[in-house]
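Input (structure):
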């Protein structure tokens, strides 16, 4: 993809930005400055470049030309220009030693005078004005593949509980249903609690096959296999259900689910992971690799501690991503001593994206009927809360509710008074 970047856009990463990961590729960078070398080295640790083999060296354009005279070129070459050499002349020399199909990213210098169209003519796939940050490098390399391969690169949303029994599965299922219905995005829910998963019950589905068949398959799961395993919940929502049986123990390695997630990314715009409350190699990897994370917590001390710990670990593992989000569920339970939302947020040093009140009748009715909250009560405030969460996690931003007019209460009173006056003669006449 031939695309330049606006300098202001490069300086500020939009919080809702979605950058899809790259396939297995090789990337070699030739840098002129220590700052760029450090940024590219750090980019190699980013989750979206986890499958890339990235190396960064000094020497810039001259070192790249010398190196590729005697060895094949990688999938992607990143070149930094320091502005001291005619970049067009250097790119002509590089083209003479490049293999067909190699993609080139140039990190330019403000002193470069070459027009962008001339860079494109010489095969440059992306041009970024330096100095660059780590996220600029990640964005540039990933955009080469997400845009040029003409495939859908689905957004993965992971929902996990800070503690068992906090209702994270209910939140995940309702949010996925809302994304599919209200945002019109084709979505898949993957129930990763293979022994005790409830997605099949919540969606009133009883599929014979599901996620276990995909992850335990001896062959790498492809699109055709996953299509057969998906249960259709609505026109836009499908489910990879958990077997929810105890006839075997489900122990997995860290990368057990990677092939399933990667395959679904190619065909599905939104994938919601219902992650069980456990800390293992594969659950940690599923969370770290997701595009967005939602932690569901209740307002008590154990949830406070666990949420704080999870936010700290996940932020550190994803330095170039939006921080994980959290919501507080089941607030206002009768006779329960709770930590106030304000105090909870102060400890987290961030506000929850939602506070969901405790409503045992509403949620138990939905669970027992195999329905979503919106199907039970379309206008309930909890339905609106799930809509807000869905918008945030799907990258649509916060839903801004219209401000109440200061004249609203006064106008309401005047209308009521007028209505009483109009009805007074009728009452006297009767």
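Output (sequence):
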């Amino acid at each position: 993809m031939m695309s330049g970047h606006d300098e202001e856009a490069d300086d500020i990463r939009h919080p809702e930005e979605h950058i899809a990961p790259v396939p297995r590729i090789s990337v070699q960078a030739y840098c002129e400055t220590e700052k760029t070398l450090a940024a590219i080295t750090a980019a190699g640790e980013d989750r979206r470049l986890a499958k890339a083999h990235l190396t960064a060296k000094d020497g810039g354009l001259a070192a790249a030309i010398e190196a590729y005279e005697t060895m094949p070129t990688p999938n992607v070459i990143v070149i930094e220009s320091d502005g001291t050499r005619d970049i067009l002349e250097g790119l002509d020399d590089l083209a003479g030693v490049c293999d067909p199909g190699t993609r080139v990213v140039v990190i330019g210098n403000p002193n470069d005078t070459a027009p962008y169209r001339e860079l494109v003519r010489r095969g440059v796939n992306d041009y970024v004005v330096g100095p660059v940050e780590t996220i600029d490098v990640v964005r540039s390399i990933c955009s080469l593949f997400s845009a040029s391969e003409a495939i859908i690169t689905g957004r993965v949303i992971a929902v996990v509980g800070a503690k068992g029994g906090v209702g994270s599965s209910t939140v995940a299922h309702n949010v996925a249903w809302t994304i599919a219905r209200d945002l019109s995005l084709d979505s898949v829910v993957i129930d990763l609690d293979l022994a005790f998963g409830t997605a099949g019950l919540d969606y009133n589905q009883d599929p014979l096959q599901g996620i276990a068949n995909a992850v335990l398959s001896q062959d790498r799961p492809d699109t055709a296999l996953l299509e057969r395993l998906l249960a259709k919940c609505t026109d836009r929502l499908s489910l990879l259900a958990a077997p929810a049986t105890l006839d075997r123990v489900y122990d997995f390695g860290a990368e057990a689910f990677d092939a399933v997630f990667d395959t679904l990314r190619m065909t599905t715009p939104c994938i919601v992971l219902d992650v069980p409350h456990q800390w293992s190699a594969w659950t940690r990897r599923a969370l770290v690799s997701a595009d967005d994370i939602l932690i569901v917590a209740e307002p008590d001390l154990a949830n406070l501690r666990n949420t704080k710990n999870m936010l700290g670990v996940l932020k550190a593992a994803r330095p170039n991503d939006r921080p994980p989000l959290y919501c507080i569920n089941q607030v206002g339970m009768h006779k329960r001593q709770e930590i106030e939302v304000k105090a909870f947020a102060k400890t987290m040093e961030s506000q929850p994206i939602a506070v969901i009140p405790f409503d045992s009748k509403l949620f138990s009715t939905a669970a027992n009927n195999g329905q979503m909250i919106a199907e039970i009560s379309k206008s309930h405030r909890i339905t609106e809360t799930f809509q807000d969460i869905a918008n945030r996690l799907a990258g649509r931003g916060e839903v801004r509710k219209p401000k109440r007019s200061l004249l609203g209460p006064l106008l309401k009173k005047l209308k009521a008074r007028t209505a009483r006056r109009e009805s007074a003669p009728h009452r006297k006449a009767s």
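Notes: Residues 1-13, 399-408, 426-430 have pLDDT under 50 and may be disordered. The CA atoms of residues 27 and 54 lie 5 Å apart.
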